[in-house]
Amino acid sequence: MPAHRTPAGSARDRILETAFRLFYAHGPRGVGVDTVIAESGVAKATLYKHFPRKDDLVLAYLDRVDQAWFGALRAAARDAGDEPRDQLVGMFDALASACRRDGYHGCAFINTAAESPAGGPVHARTVEHKTVVRAWVTELARQAGAADPELLARQLTLLLDGGLAGGVLDGDPVIADAARRSARTLVDAALR
Amino acid sequence: MPAHRTPAGSARDRILETAFRLFYAHGPRGVGVDTVIAESGVAKATLYKHFPRKDDLVLAYLDRVDQAWFGALRAAARDAGDEPRDQLVGMFDALASACRRDGYHGCAFINTAAESPAGGPVHARTVEHKTVVRAWVTELARQAGAADPELLARQLTLLLDGGLAGGVLDGDPVIADAARRSARTLVDAALR
DNA sequence: GCGGCAGCAGACGGAACTGTCTGTAGAATT
DNA sequence: AATTCTACAGACAGTTCCGTCTGCTGCCGC
Questions:
Q1: Do B26 and B106 reside in the same domain of the chain?
Q2: Nearest-angstrom CA–CA distance, A28 and A26
Q3: Total structural domains within chain B
Q4: Residue A101, domain member (yes or no)
Q5: Residues on chain B touching A186 (C-beta within 8 angstroms)
Q6: Closest chain A residue to B124, measured at CA
Q7: Residue A114 with chain B: CB contacts under 8 Å
Q8: Would you state the pLDDT for residue A192?
Q9: Which among A13, A123, B114, B147 is least buried, having the fewest CB atoms inside 10 angstroms?
Q10: Which has more pLDDT, B47 or B1?
Q11: Residues B156, B162, B164, CA angle at the centre, nearest 5°?
């Protein structure tokens, strides 16, 4: 697995990077395999060797999104200090950052799920992602001493989803601000 | 404009009804014009006479969704009593009802916007819809005596969006319940 | 009775997309 | 030096989908 390397990273990396950029901007369905090939400077056979079906590439894309978003969420929480109750609010800074980022288009999972068949692997992966994030928030809520950690986590992830969903239209930072204030209110009420 | 009538309603109505059903279930992009034609029992030329482009049909579909959803929201608010502060919470019953409805797939606007090009008419219509709903909520918040009606409206519509967005995956009523509780907490805090 | 209108039926062209296949080049291993 | 692996380049078939176009039918108002 070492060596080989073409110009910028391995072929696989170039494919994934290009797919990430194009899929997020136009949605997986809005991007043809030929476009990914052209923009990543890769041969068609190479792409189909690494990802036998387009769906495989889409799932790999979602895994990347999962890593990036969940990572940003945890980093934002960590930066908010040591108190779990502050971290629960601080994670919304990740939403604010995302809104301000150029080319922001909302939640990649929701966007992709919206254009994928109902029982398919994309939906399964999306549910998994949402479940993992909510479990993490639940643990944080438990550490903070919430009476009903599951409920608080559900409420906060609901806010996150709402903020992300609205992002498909515009990345108005006002949305992130409203979400953060809501989170503060809900956390305070839950820990009263 | 009277008479004519084929089996069930005018051709236009049949087209719209079929498009509504199919578009909501699979997303406009996942449904070919030929499918709409086959299932509505209409001639291709007839469809293209009423809706010269597929986009026109998609926009008409969104208008229908707007009427239905906004109507359900207002009805739920009305059913919650005469007090604006109760109506602000009561409108979340529309979300609960939607979650329980068979074939529920989340917010048609967000789902459609997710698969449409960024600057296009679909996005414009979606923004318009969200703006109208939020304006209505803002007025309700003002009547309830909120210090910052715009903020409260933003927070509540954020919850609505979050609840709807999650619906793409599953229509878990727990989500609607969490949203309703959040709304109660936020409204109480804003009117303290 | 007749012209126009609304609609049905289906063929057609052109484009886009997915996935397969053939052939070639360069680097690493043996 | 020969083989093998990875990758490039591009043709190709098969499907799907949008939008147009040509006939044909039945109902209305004039």
A1: no
A2: 7
A3: 2
A4: yes
A5: 182, 185-186
A6: A169
A7: 27, 106, 110-112, 114-115, 168
A8: 87
A9: B147
A10: B47
A11: 105
Are residues B96 and B45 part of one domain? no
- The closest CB to that of A155, out of B123, B154, B181, belongs to B181
Do B47 and B114 lie in a common domain? Answer: no
Cβ atoms of residues B36 and B70 within 8 Å: no
Q: What CATH number should be reported for the domain holding residue A142?
A: 1.10.357.10
Q: Please give the residue of chain B at the shortest CA–CA distance from A166.
A: B161
Quickly state the pLDDT bin for A8 (edges 50, 70, 90). low
Same domain, B78 and B126: yes
Straight-line distance from CA B26 to C1' C7, in Å?
28
Kindly report, residue by residue over B1-35, the tens digit of the pLDDT.
333 334 567 889 999 999 999 999 999 999 999 99
Q: B128 to chain A: nearest residue by CA? A: A169
Tell me the CATH number at A13. 1.10.10.60
Inside any domain, residue B2:
no
Separation of CA A60 and C1' D6 in angstroms?
Answer: 21
Does residue B69 lie in a domain region? yes
Give the per-residue pLDDT at A5: 38
pLDDT at A1 over 80: no
pLDDT digit string, tens, across residues B69-127: 999 999 999 999 999 999 999 999 999 999 999 999 999 999 999 999 999 999 999 99
Q: Which residues constitute the domain of residue B39? A: 7-52
- Residue B48 belongs to what H/E stretch? helix B44-50
Co-location of A73 and A152 in the same domain: yes
- Distance from B98 to chain A by nearest Cα, in Å? 16
Provide the 3-class DSSP secondary structure of residue B109.
helix
Tell me which residues from 46 to 65 on chain B have a beta carbon below 7 angstroms from nucleic acid strand D: 48, 52-55
Mean pLDDT of all residues in B145-158: 98
Domain presence at residue B1? no
Same structural domain, B115 and B144? yes
| Amino acid code (one letter) for B104 | Y
